[in-house]
Design a protein that fits this description.
Distance between the termini: 50 Å
Number of helices: 7
Number of strands: 8
Helix content: 25-40%
CATH superfamily of the largest domain: Acyl-CoA dehydrogenase/oxidase, N-terminal domain
Mean pLDDT: 93
CATH class of the largest domain: Mainly Alpha
CATH topology of the largest domain: Butyryl-Coa Dehydrogenase, subunit A, domain 1
Structural class: alpha+beta
Strand content: 15-25%
Number of domains: 2
Order of helices and strands: HHHHHHHEEEEEEEE
Radius of gyration: 20 Å
Shape: globular
Length: 250
């Protein structure tokens, strides 16, 4: 019997028994997957009611720290910045296991994906040394602030703007971000803004910076165990050292 390979089963009727899905994992990959599976089974599923159907910020932060202690937050962080730097298959296996806890996965994905990978991919050595070890350990929680009320998928339509201070030491950020996952507890935000009204750029903004305000929790139809708030930036002074990838954007 001929096997169906590739993605042909997506566009033609097929017997499921004829579809080949390669799963030739290494022993290390299987161990990593089992670690993530055990974390979900032992740490998250017993707390489904508390974590999936309502927002429990402290519990979410606690479980993110536990994931950090297990190394699950550091999968794609380079070893020189205290990460595991596993292969992409292993990283995907971790995601495949943790996504069983859907609301928690939003927080987890913000930490390991869009909240930290911009620093991994575009940060300089000093930025990586300052932020990645804490993010990988779950000691610093990260979020990604791109969406605005008037611009979602049209990211370049964002109105948040950044202006270099007279002494050249800071960028002054003003604007509002909307629907930012993990914002009620994040310590570090990747915030996008236009420099000089044209150059779409990213900044590492710490929660402690003056002028950064977190709005109330959004009332969502689903994913009720995840945090979603707005961010308002009012003359937030961001050190020039926190610009990611240059003022022309990343």
């Amino acid at each position: 019997m001929n096997k169906i390979v590739g993605g042909s089963f997506l566009v033609q009727e097929a017997d499921l028994n004829r579809i080949v899905t390669p799963e030739d994992f290494t022993e290390e990959q299987r161990m990593i997957a089992q670690l993530a599976d055990d974390f979900v089974t032992n740490e998250l599923e017993p707390l489904e009611e508390e974590m999936e159907h309502q927002l429990n910020v402290e519990l979410t932060k606690e479980k993110l720290r536990t994931a950090g202690e297990l190394g699950l937050l550091s999968a794609e962080v380079p070893e020189r910045y205290e990460g595991l730097d596993v292969d992409k298959v292993s990283a995907l296996l971790i995601n495949e296991k943790i996504v069983r806890a859907t609301s928690f996965f939003i927080s987890y994905g913000g930490q390991t994906g869009i909240g930290s990978l911009p620093i991994v991919f575009f940060g300089n050595d000093e930025q990586k040394r300052r932020y990645l070890p804490g993010i990988a350990a779950g000691e610093k929680l990260a979020a990604y602030a791109l969406t605005e009320a008037s611009s979602g998928t049209d990211a370049l339509g964002a109105k948040t703007h950044a202006k270099l201070s007279g002494d050249g030491a800071y960028y002054i950020l003003n604007g509002t971000k909307q629907f930012i996952s993990g914002s009620s507890f994040a310590d570090v935000f990747i915030v996008f803004a236009k420099v000089n009204g044209t150059d779409f750029s990213a900044f590492i903004v710490e929660r402690s910076f003056d002028g950064l305000h977190i709005g109330p929790e959004e009332k969502k139809m689903g994913l009720k165990g995840s945090s979603t708030c707005s961010l308002t930036l009012e003359d937030v002074k961001v050190p020039v050292e926190n610009l990611l990838g240059g003022s022309a954007g990343i």
